[in-house]
Design goal:
Layout lengths: L1 H25 L24 E3 L16 H5 L5 E5 L7 H12 L13 E7 L8 H5 L5 E3 L14 E3 H14 L23 H4 L9
Antiparallel strand pairs: 1-4, 2-3, 3-5
The protein binds iron/sulfur cluster (2 copies).
The site of one iron/sulfur cluster has 13 residues, from helix 2.
């Protein structure tokens, strides 16, 4: 008796498996038969490619990065290198004020370096795409790119200057043709359809059956 129940249970699991297979078989495919088919931006939207910097909303060519170095510490593969931007040079007036303050024995305040990176380098050949840097960034300045077409003949081809890459992408996006503006809705409301003219107005004869 026990063997009959076991057989039924086994058959049921087979039916469930076949049902799942049949359901997935009927769904439209999500993969692209590259290179026979083109990979469209829509189909590449979920692709996790090499990481890239995300620009400021108002200045897309400048990264959101504040050079906190958290991504450098979090990366298990050591493929990120960031340096802070240098402090701006003091103006002649500021230099004079600093010199006077120092002559008085004070400690003058020098211009502080901006919270921005001076260099941001990424070695894609070492990256495991683990996403730790994306998660740890406090200002959401790192994301996965959709760059699928990448070729190189040597390892150095995959070491990216991310600041330059961001600037190139921002310039390319700016140069893209803008979508055509939608036609403005007409100010005057659409005229209501005129009531159908009576046969007497049109001069048309009423069919004998309707008379
Ligand atoms: S995705 Fe992972 S391995 Fe790649 S740069 Fe970020 S932290 Fe490093
Ligand atoms: S990208 Fe983010 S985590 Fe990395 S240094 Fe810049 S602000 Fe910090």
């Amino acid at each position: 008796m026990a063997s009959i129940f076991r057989t039924i249970a086994d058959l049921w699991s087979l039916v469930v498996g076949l049902a799942i297979t049949g359901k997935e078989f009927c769904r439209p495919g999500v993969t692209v038969h590259y290179p026979r088919a083109e990979v469209t931006p829509e189909s590449a939207a979920s692709f996790r490619g090499p990481i890239e910097l995300i620009g400021l909303d108002k200045e897309p060519a400048k990264p959101r990065c504040i050079a906190c170095m958290l991504c450098v510490s979090a990366c298990p593969s050591g493929c990120i290198a960031v340096t802070r931007a240098p402090a701006p040079k003091p103006t002649p007036e500021e230099l004079k004020a600093i010199a006077e303050a120092e002559a008085r024995g004070e400690k003058p305040k020098r211009p502080a370096p901006p919270k921005a990176p001076g260099t941001w380098t990424y070695d894609f050949s070492l990256c495991s795409l683990c996403g730790s840097c994306v998660e740890v960034c406090p200002v959401d300045s790192i994301g996965f790119s959709n760059d699928i077409y990448m070729v190189g003949t040597k390892r150095e081809d995959f070491v990216f200057d991310q600041l330059a890459r961001l600037a190139r992408k921002a310039a390319a996006r700016k140069a893209e043709p803008k979508p055509a503006a939608k036609p403005a809705p007409s100010a005057a409301p659409e005229a209501a359809p005129a009531p159908a003219a009576s046969p007497s107005e049109t001069g048309a004869a009423t069919p004998a059956s309707e008379a």
